[in-house]
């Protein structure tokens, strides 16, 4: 019974992981990035890691 929900659980956890990584790397979370994370799911994590942090100052 739980196996039906496993893909949705993985997709949701990867979205939270992307948000956490983005905040730790000082990335601005835009609507485009949010949509990409939603559609790409676990495959979005490398894109978040490759994104350049914003430079303040």
Explain briefly what this protein structure is.
The protein is an all-alpha fold and 57 residues long. The chain is 61% helix and 0% strand.
Walk me through this protein's architecture.
The chain has helices spanning 6-24, 31-40, 45-50. The longest helix has 19 residues, at 6-24. It has 57 residues and is mostly helical. The chain has 3 helices and no strands. It has one domain. The model has no long low-confidence stretch (mean pLDDT 85). The protein is elongated.
- What string, H for helix and E for strand, traces the elements in order? HHH
Q: What would you report as the Rg, rounded to the nearest angstrom?
A: 13 Å
Query: Which class best fits the helix and strand makeup?
Result: mainly alpha
Shape: elongated
What do the pLDDT scores average to? 85
Distance between the termini: 52 Å
Helical proportion, percent range: 55-70%
Number of helices: 3
Strand content bin:
under 5%
Number of domains: 1
Work out the number of β strands: 0
Describe the largest sheet: none
Residue runs with pLDDT of under 50 for 5 or more positions: none
